[in-house]
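Can anyone check this?
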Amino acid sequence: MPRELADIQRDAMEPSNKESATLVEHLLATLDADEETASEELWMEEAERRHADYRAGKIASKTAEQIFTGAQNKFN
């Protein structure tokens, strides 16, 4: 049977500061991993959409020089 959140929270307050810090780091790393996975999935969807648009002739390709020049112009 799964433990109740209140029980988990109470137990999490019992360890030493070092153990609590380790637990917090682990939990945050787990959250970060979920965010990274979601972000990667969104970028993959965007890349696939752009590739499909390119293959369908909806968008044109650009050279690396065009891309870098455009980026530099935005920051100057």
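Reply from J.R.: I decoded it. The chain has a mean pLDDT of 85.
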